[in-house]
């Protein structure tokens, strides 16, 4: 929304006359011209300081001007604007009113006074000033724009539209007004009207492409990425492929997690201008999202070469290099080069901190992240990263510091607020205050629920149960055996490590990847992508609903199964083309075991299991990068866990026993060598003693378990739920017979149901019932 935070200050009023000479006197005219020149110089210097954010310097210059010309309206007006920037609203109002008294004809004084009232939370007074300005000059475009913005804030879209329209008729060259008008209509779900405004900008030859980009950027800032994409797609259709438009589309598609579409938009941008740094950067990010890191590195290297003074590309390249070959020396060199360009570039320190963690140097990691915090005082990410590494936490110092940061953070987003709440939950966990920790975890998850719901990521118990039933019906033992014989690829390279998130998948992969014949590829989304593509192919064009997995599996042909297996194996080659085994530790591949078994009958599957409450609580406390909507409520977590157990109970019955190995986390940490030997034997390799020294393995680990796999095995992660037991009644009840047989479990459920009964018995006013 266009708000005049730094309005243009016009210097067209003359200072009061000085001296007593006759108006016809040459001496008077010379003195007057000299005074005017001095006045204009002072105000010009003050204005430049104001626009540069140097408010103290502006104040000094204006104080000097005020001594010589105490009743000059322009001086008082600019003094009012300085006070406004300092959020000294009462002082700003008084000074601008003084300017109005000195020169009542200057309407910009009134429009800026209205803006001060808006900032001070006084829309009624702002409206009165704007009405007065429009009474004095009905053709004042700025007053119409400000009135439209004010009405828009108050939800009066109809009258706001009227003022936007008048402003455009009066001054059609103001492209931002077109964009504000279009974005307001789109936000109000008046899509066609909003697009019509953009089309009119084209018809009036007012650079419709810039208007569309501005509209899309505003919608993106307002957390409406889907709308932003639609505006940019419409612009591309009307104006052809233009690099900035398409790279903006890539960013918006990322926000909606439409990564394949983002890749195609980036490819179009490159076709429009292959040498564009923006287009190459967009392609690098798109490829990274698709986990095509080697290709992403090539495009980001081009950006570094073509924009050597842009530190962000060096840091982004350092991050990509970490995914390809864990060349930490090259990563550190790139970050240091970025800091030579800009010594205060916070992301470089953040990346150096992550590299130090990967190398196991946690002291250096803490030092770097503190520097990142100093460079980016309002970014919550470094704060969370720092306190996750801190062992000695005090409520008086550390927690108070985080709370103070949170209170000082203006215009905080939902995502940033969620990060602060996760951080506070972790801090209270470290000071052994579970009741307060669980409060902040619930708050954080509630905020993420708001975010993810906007992206369409909502947990459906009914849908989850239906898909489990469909898998049971389709993937019978006979069907899998028959399909393996007919369509299975003989490769033994893939090793699938799966289970619930936070169940030990990272630890198992780290142990196996310490073997010289194993490449640890991390969490690969490739199987999910292959399934999504097949779903699109098997859904009839124009169908209202997709033919989702696994319903299309019995319809698939031999060449389709062969293509899926081939594409998956080719993808593994991008991580390592030589080693006999490559691990894929995407936890939720447990939903795809039936298809995996058919595609790769000789591949090995490792199922990681852990105490159900430990694994669920760990998910609840985790700020996942990708949406896991089931993890946001304790009752949904319990339900999801039961469905996961139903999946695995079925796979045990139908998948050949030699293909599936199950490892219990608690057994692994208590008897490391025995279980590790069984893991290596299961994937068909000879034992190697390096597997016992997994914590010394130098490879990129970018999951929530990074710190744990840099240490020898320990048992302190067992039964971590015990202090939280009184607050987990919803989880225990939802787990049902999967919950531990423990008196604390029964006690927590009993207390939960007693509270619910007490609340149900309380009479509620009719208006409260209606509100609920």
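^ structure tokens above, recovered residues below v
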């Amino acid at each position: 929304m266009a708000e005049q935070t730094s309005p243009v200050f016009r210097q067209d009023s003359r200072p009061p006359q000085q001296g007593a000479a006759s108006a016809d006197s040459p001496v008077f005219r010379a003195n007057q011209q000299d005074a005017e020149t001095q006045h204009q110089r002072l105000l010009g210097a003050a204005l430049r300081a104001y626009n540069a954010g140097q408010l103290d310097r502006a104040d000094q210059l204006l104080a000097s001007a005020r001594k010589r010309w105490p009743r000059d309206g322009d001086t008082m007006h600019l003094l009012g604007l300085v006070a406004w920037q300092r959020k000294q609203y009462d002082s700003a109002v008084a000074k601008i009113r003084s300017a109005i008294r000195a020169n009542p004809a200057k309407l910009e004084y009134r429009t800026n006074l209205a803006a001060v009232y808006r900032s001070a939370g006084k829309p009624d007074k702002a409206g009165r000033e704007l009405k007065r300005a429009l009474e004095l000059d009905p053709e004042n475009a700025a007053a119409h724009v400000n009135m439209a913005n004010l009405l828009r804030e108050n939800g009066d879209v109809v009258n706001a539209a009227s003022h936007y329209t008048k402003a455009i008729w009066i001054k059609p060259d103001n492209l931002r007004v077109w964009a504000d008008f279009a974005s307001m209509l789109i936000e109000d779900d008046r899509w066609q009207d909003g697009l019509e405004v953009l089309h009119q900008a084209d018809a009036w030859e007012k650079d419709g492409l810039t208007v569309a980009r501005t509209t899309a950027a505003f919608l993106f800032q307002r957390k409406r990425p889907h709308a932003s994409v639609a505006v940019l797609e419409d612009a591309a259709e009307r104006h052809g492929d233009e690099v900035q438009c398409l790279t903006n589309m890539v960013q918006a598609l990322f926000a909606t997690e439409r990564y394949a579409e983002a890749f195609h938009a980036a490819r179009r941008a490159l076709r429009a201008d292959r040498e564009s740094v923006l287009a190459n950067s967009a392609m690098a990010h798109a490829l990274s999202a698709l986990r095509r890191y080697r290709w992403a590195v090539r495009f980001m290297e081009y950006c570094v070469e073509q924009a050597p003074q842009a530190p962000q590309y060096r840091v982004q390249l350092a991050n990509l290099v970490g995914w390809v070959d864990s060349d930490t020396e090259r990563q550190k060199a790139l970050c240091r080069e970025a800091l030579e360009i800009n010594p205060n570039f916070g992301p470089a320190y953040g990346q150096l901190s992550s590299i130090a963690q990967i190398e196991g140097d946690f002291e250096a990691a803490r030092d770097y992240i503190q520097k990142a915090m100093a460079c980016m005082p309002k970014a919550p990410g470094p704060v969370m990263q720092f306190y996750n590494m801190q062992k000695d936490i005090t409520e008086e110092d550390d927690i108070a510091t985080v709370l103070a940061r949170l209170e000082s953070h203006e215009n905080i987003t939902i995502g940033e607020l969620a990060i602060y709440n996760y951080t506070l939950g972790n801090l209270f966990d470290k000071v052994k205050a579970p009741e307060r920790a669980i409060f902040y975890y619930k708050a954080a998850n509630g905020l993420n629920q708001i975010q993810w719901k906007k992206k369409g990521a909502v947990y459906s118990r009914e849908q989850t149960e239906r898909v489990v039933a469909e898998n049971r019906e389709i993937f019978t033992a006979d069907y899998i055996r028959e399909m393996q014989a007919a369509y299975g690829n003989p490769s033994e390279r893939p090793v699938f490590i799966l289970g619930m998130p936070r169940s030990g998948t990272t630890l198992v992969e780290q142990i196996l990847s310490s073997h010289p014949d194993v490449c640890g590829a991390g969490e690969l989304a490739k199987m999910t992508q292959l399934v999504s593509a097949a779903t699109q192919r098997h859904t009839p064009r124009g169908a209202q609903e997709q033919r989702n997995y696994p319903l299309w599996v019995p319809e698939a042909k031999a060449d389709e199964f062969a293509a899926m297996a081939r594409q998956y194996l080719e993808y593994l080659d991008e991580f390592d083309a030589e080693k006999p085994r490559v691990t894929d530790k995407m936890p939720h591949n447990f939903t795809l075991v039936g298809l995996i078994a058919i595609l790769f009958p000789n591949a090995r599957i490792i199922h990681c299991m852990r105490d159900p409450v430990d694994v669920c609580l760990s998910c609840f406390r985790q700020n996942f990068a990708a949406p896991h909507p089931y993890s946001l409520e304790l009752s949904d977590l319990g339900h999801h866990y039961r469905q996961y157990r139903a999946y695995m109970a079925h796979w045990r019955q139908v998948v050949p026993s030699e293909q599936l190995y199950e490892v219990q986390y608690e057994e692994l940490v208590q008897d490391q060598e025995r279980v590790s030997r069984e893991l290596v034997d299961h994937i068909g390799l000879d034992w190697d003693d390096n597997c016992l020294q997994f914590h010394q393995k130098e490879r990129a680990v970018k999951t929530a378990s990074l710190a744990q796999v840099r240490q020898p095995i320990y048992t302190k992660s067992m039964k971590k739920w015990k202090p939280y037991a009184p607050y987990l009644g919803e989880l225990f009840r939802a787990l049902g017979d999967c919950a531990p047989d423990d008196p604390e479990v029964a006690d927590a459920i009993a207390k939960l149901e007693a509270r619910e009964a007490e609340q149900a018995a309380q009479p509620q006013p009719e208006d409260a019932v209606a509100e609920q």
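Residues 183 and 215 are 6 Å apart (CA to CA).
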